[in-house]
């Protein structure tokens, strides 16, 4: 009990743990399914999603607004990759376990595979592509490059977005805070030591730009 309280307090100060992250995403997706897909009733909303009914959705991605017609059950990841051709966010597990699909929604790291496109309407969505400054890498991208923080690179866009989100909340994290802040993102190549170093460097770089 006391441990849970400590963890909750820590989340508010320093970002969010893997467990809290998954709970937040799951709760949001369910609330949207029940409350937004249909304006009438939760049962009708669930039926609409099941039938694959087409709906309009307007999304602000990397500073630009886009309008699509999608099935109400499409995830944000589906729309980013299939409609916008943004291949930075990756499909790994598709169920909130690996973090390969991480994007920022209103500045918070979220799993795009567990977020309905409709849920993201009216919010600012940032993908790894949106961190570029003209043709230059942003600070977190540059730090990952400088520290060889990747092997196959599949997890890297998600790792970068998780780091970006964490550093916005906690600009000067300790190594323990970095480990915890990045705990929602798995790397099957095991590049964690380099990833953590990259995040440490990214924190410094961000303070100079
Ligand atoms: S693909 Fe989204 S968490 Fe794994
Ligand atoms: S670099 Fe291969 S999964 Fe992370």
Enumerate the strands of the largest sheet in spatial order, edge to edge or round the barrel: 2-1-5-3-4
Percent helix, as a range, is: 40-55%
The CATH C-level name of the largest domain is Alpha Beta
Distance between the termini: 41 Å
Radius of gyration of CA atoms, rounded to a whole number:
17 Å
Number of domains: 2
Which CATH architecture of the largest domain? Roll
Cofactors, ions, other ligands: FE2/S2 (inorganic) cluster
* Order of H and E elements: HHHEEHEEEHHHH
Gist of the model:
The protein is an alpha+beta fold and 209 residues long.
Can you describe this structure?
- It is a single chain.
- Helix 5 crosses helix 8 and helix 6 crosses helix 8 (192-208).
- By secondary structure, the protein is α+β, with helices and mostly antiparallel strands.
- The chain has helices spanning 2-14, 18-35, 42-51, 76-83, 139-146, 156-169, 175-181, 192-208; strands at 54-61, 64-71, 102-105, 108-111, 124-126.
- Strand 1 (54-61) and strand 2 form a beta hairpin.
- It is globular, with a radius of gyration of 17 Å.
- The N and C termini lie far apart (41 Å).
- The protein is built from eight helices and five strands, in the order αααββαβββαααα.
- The model is unreliable at 1-40 (pLDDT under 50).
- The chain folds into two domains: 2-131, Beta-grasp domain (Ubiquitin-like (UB roll)); 139-208, [2Fe-2S]-binding domain (DNA polymerase, domain 1, Orthogonal Bundle), CATH 1.10.150.
- Strands 2-1-5-3-4 form a five-stranded mixed beta sheet, with helices on both faces.
- Bound molecules: FE2/S2 (inorganic) cluster (2 copies).
- One FE2/S2 (inorganic) cluster (FES) binds at residues 150-156, 187-189, 191.
